[in-house]
Amino acid sequence: MKTRAITGFFFIVVMVGAMLLGAEVFLGFFTLLSAWCLFEFYGIVSSEDRKPNKFLGILTSSALFITTACYSLGWLEAKFILLFIPSLLAIYIHALYQKRDFPFNDIGFTILGILYVGFPFYCFTRLGYISGDFNHFLPLGFMILLWTSDTGAYLAGRSLGKHKLFERISPKKTWEGFFGGIVLAVLVSLCLAHFFETIPQWQWIVTAIIIGVFGTLGDLVESMLKRSLNVKDSGNILPGHGGFLDRFDGLLIAGPLVYLFLYLVN
Prior knowledge:
Low-confidence stretches: none
Strand content: under 5%
Number of strands: 2
């Protein structure tokens, strides 16, 4: 627990710093972080029957991130974002030359990684531009609510948990913890609405509910993935925590839904 706490503290400091130090640092940091998470995903799903193209998968995802970041910073026109398309199509063409028995297994898992990992991180970075120019309040608020939901779920589950939420996938998760996470996230969202006035209070509350519900489901989906592959952690880069993908599993489903909600109402 000591190792886990120390790692978590420094990781949060780095994360918050990346969001507070301006658009360039924010976009650069999350481009690299998403690429590493995608690398971890490809690592745990790879087998003799499944060999996703790590290079082209990460290149495609990073091309989308980098071109969009350059557009957001005013360095490129919007049309250059479409440059990720050639690397996406190259995934199919490259498989022609591999002489594999089941090439679409490789293609499918390569593209799944982009959709499951790369796209949610992409949506998360776009939260910084909901109001037009870069503003760190929304991505920072998102992460605070995600961490709050996890903390509330842990505390409520440990003290009150009796009814299993999804025992087949995650034996420790309970309904009490699930609702405890949502309640604490909503309470914290009221504080965020007071200090971060980028969006009105009701939007912060809805955002907290989305994160509380779908952050938990994102955690369960990644647990389902690891359980089906008989893998404990996505990596070991974070002592006491596993891999980066393990730390951001809640973002993978909650991120796109929060972005969709805020994009539609603003």
